[in-house]
Specification:
It contains 28 helices and 20 strands. It is of the alpha+beta class. Helix 6 runs antiparallel to helix 7, helix 7 packs across helix 9 and helix 10 packs antiparallel against helix 11. It is globular and about 95 Å long. The two termini are 45 Å apart.
């Protein structure tokens, strides 16, 4: 129970937050703005007066916190503060969008409309979240502030997720990693992106999060000492050369450390760049580029750079406007250190992303057609031409968020920025959809290449076209950009429709020739005979010759018996393999310990003791680990099909789990390992593979254990074997 607070103390608390918001916003406010903010605050206070959050505090503190984040951490202005204060009013109270428009104008009303969830009934198989994401993103084409306020709203919800029930925590955290962190990244809000990822980890894999957090904290004093020594000579030289600057040491986020450990399969102690040094220069815009390179030359005078790790986003900024010069250098202590060099303006854009662009756009020091605006225009185009289902749309949209980029040039030297792994065909569609639709191939650096050629940085591409060329379904395998995909799909759909018209004409003629009336009943007999599901599909196949019109004869329509199909109905193998040792009464599922027909997910092989959830499918419930690679996708898109699940007390049953070992190879090592497994813990092995190379061995063992305790004991014992350096559990993909 939250402590009981007197109404007066609560009123003071609310006012304190409100005054803090005004103080933070003060430098950006114009005449009349404070009055407007006060009006929005009072309306929100009145609308939410009876409401409380799950934590017990007055609801109004949430809109205030969202407005505070919008100003302080994203750098938005009055319109956004007003929209943030009112963002839940339409959803939670009788107030209508029209009331907001009357009181606060069209802009605010449009933003709030974009932030209001769609209400209504969703069919099974569609996703309410995906539909809401799509609605919110559609307003991106009108006003980017919708997304920025939504990110602020999500950040505050994640910061206060403690008070939510466990299944809600998992759903909200997964949704955050699935959509909001990539969105923040794409809009250049790196600090917020990192915090959202860390908070996701904190709630879905608390143990790992706390473990890495405490290790980062333990190494802090040594890190600060190291940074001080590392920076000293650079500091002295920058002073001597008269630079105005600031130097910061910034630790990597917990999530990115874990990602690195998993990707490179290394331990925490082996992650070499736990932090980055940032040099921020105060220089006028016209001197920025030269100053950054000057500082680079000072840094590399003292420390040897790694030539493969130089990233120059000063000359060609990232598509979201990020500009910075990154180099990795070797310190005197034999450690690699990342150094980021940028101007104050670049740092502002890196921290505040999109909003900072507008700030600098007014001063004219950034090109009005910045690459970030170019990206927003691309999204706009994609939203307008997209008629796939909301889930497909979300999937494509996400693919466009986290991509690396490839820089290619037209024959006249115009730079075209495309997602990494884009092809010559993507390039053609990027220039113009008509060029894409008639593309034959490309000349890349004067050499002929096919449509599917993957572009590399610096390629110069000339597209070859022919008015006879037409897209085919295979083209969809050659493109990765949404624009190209949707244009090809549109063409194929229109083409199919046109051919279906021809097919209908052919069928009418054929039926006339054989003297059979063209009735619905006769047509249904044809569909059954040729085993085709829809009329359009049948007409289309007839037009392209897949269905031979000559086989349509009078005899097909004379018989009273049902027409046999020319195709054998497909047979499905309904035998679902039973995984050894799982019994239906082992899981307590949902609030009321209902017994469900369930199976164990093959992608992550949960075992008793793991933190798990259930996912409803037509075949019953599938149990996944909350840290499963697919969990984020399932929880964020199908939150309504997630069921809480936990293990009951275990019987002596065996579950399959994988253990990976690494160490230095020696005679008898495998013998020691297998002896521990089979004798000391009564564990049965299913398989063992060990590869040795240059004195290092790498092994994978599949064992049957009772639960996580049993598995952890086994891992602890294996760690003590002489020569074994690393032991960890891994998810078995093909158990």
């Amino acid at each position: 129970m939250p402590p009981v607070i007197s109404p007066e103390a609560e009123r003071q608390e609310i006012l304190r937050h409100y005054r803090r918001l005004l103080r933070t916003a003060k430098p950006y406010l114009k005449d009349g703005d404070p009055k407007l903010i006060k009006k929005a605050f009072n309306q929100s206070l009145e609308a939410h007066k009876e409401m409380r959050r799950k934590s017990g505090e007055p609801y109004i503190l949430h809109p205030l916190a969202v407005a505070q984040i919008a100003v302080e951490e994203i750098g938005l202005g009055t319109t956004s503060i007003v929209a943030a204060l009112l963002h839940d009013v339409v959803e939670d109270t009788p107030t209508e969008i029209s009331d907001i428009e009357r009181e606060f104008g069209t802009k605010v009303a449009r933003i709030i409309d974009g932030l209001t969830k769609i209400s209504g009934v969703f069919e099974y198989g569609t996703s309410e979240q995906a539909e809401n994401f799509r609605k919110m993103l559609l307003t991106l084409s009108e006003d980017v502030r919708v997304i920025l306020i939504k990110i602020a709203d999500r950040l505050h919800n994640m910061r206060t997720l403690d008070s939510m029930p466990r299944h809600k925590q998992l759903k909200i955290a997964s949704e955050t990693l699935y959509l909001y962190a990539p969105l923040a990244h794409r809009l250049g809000l790196y600090t917020i992106k990192s915090e959202l990822e860390d908070l996701y980890l904190k709630f879905t894999d608390t143990e790992t999060y706390n473990d890495i957090k405490s290790k980062v904290r333990q190494s802090q004093a040594a890190r600060n000492r190291f940074i001080k020594e590392f920076v000293q000579p650079i500091d002295d030289e920058l002073k001597a050369q008269g630079f105005e600057y600031e130097i910061k040491g910034r630790p990597k986020s917990i999530y990115s450390i874990l990602k690195k450990m998993k990707k490179q399969n290394i331990t925490f102690d082996e992650v070499y760049d736990l932090f980055a040094i940032r040099v921020i220069l105060d220089v006028p815009p016209e001197q920025e580029k030269a100053a950054c390179w000057q500082v680079y030359s000072i840094v590399t005078d003292f420390y040897q750079p790694n030539p493969d790790r130089l990233r120059d986003w000063v000359s060609t900024p990232k598509a979201n406007g990020y500009e910075s010069l990154h180099t990795t250098v070797m310190s005197r202590a034999g450690q690699w250190v990342e150094v980021q060099i940028r101007s104050r303006r670049m740092d502002d854009i890196a921290e505040k992303g999109y909003a900072a662009h507008w700030k600098y756009k007014d001063t004219g020091s950034i090109q009005p057609e910045s690459s970030l605006e170019g990206w927003v225009n691309k999204v706009r185009e994609m939203l307008e031409s997209n008629n796939s289902s909301a889930l497909e749309f979300m999937d494509e949209f996400r693919q466009n968020l986290f991509v690396k980029e490839v820089y290619a040039f037209t024959p006249k030297g115009k730079l075209v920025i495309l997602p990494d792994k884009a092809t010559a065909l993507d390039f053609a569609f990027d220039i113009h959809s008509q060029i894409g639709l008639h593309c034959l191939g490309a000349k890349v650096n004067q050499k002929l290449e096919p449509l599917s050629y993957q572009l590399h940085n610096g390629d110069q591409v000339e597209i070859l076209t022919s008015h006879k060329q037409r897209p085919t379904p295979e083209w969809l395998n050659y493109v990765i950009t949404t624009k190209a995909r949707s244009k090809i799909k549109d063409f194929l759909r229109d083409d199919k429709r046109a051919k279906a018209e021809d097919g209908r004409f052919l069928l009418e003629k054929r039926m006339e020739n054989i003297g059979v009336p063209f009735t619905q009943e006769n047509f249904n007999r044809l569909l059954a005979y040729f085993n085709v599901a829809t009329a359009q599909e049948f007409y289309y196949r007839l037009a392209i010759g897949q269905v031979d019109g000559r086989t349509i004869r009078e005899s097909l329509f004379n018989s009273d018996k049902p027409v046999p199909s020319v195709l054998e109905p497909k047979t499905f193998d309904n035998e679902v393999q039973k995984i050894r040792g799982v019994r239906p009464d082992m899981l307590v599922v949902g609030e009321h310990t209902d017994k469900f027909n369930y199976s164990i997910a093959r992608c992550c092989n949960p075992i008793p003791g793991d933190d798990v959830f259930g996912f409803e499918t037509d075949q019953g419930l599938i149990i996944h680990r909350t840290s499963c690679p697919r969990a984020v996708d399932l929880m964020s898109n199908y939150g309504n099909r997630i069921v809480r699940a936990k293990w009951t007390d275990q019987l002596e049953l065996a579950f399959l789990a994988g253990i990976r070992l690494k160490g230095s190879d020696r005679v008898g090592l495998v013998n020691d390992v297998t002896r521990i497994i089979s004798t000391s813990l009564k564990v049965n092995m299913r398989s063992i593979t060990i590869n040795a190379d240059d004195g290092i061995f790498d092994g994978q063992i599949m064992v049957f254990v009772n639960d996580t305790d049993h598995l952890n004991k086994l891992i602890q014992r294996l760690r003590k074997v002489n020569g074994v350096l690393q032991v960890e559990r891994f998810d078995s993909q093909h158990a």
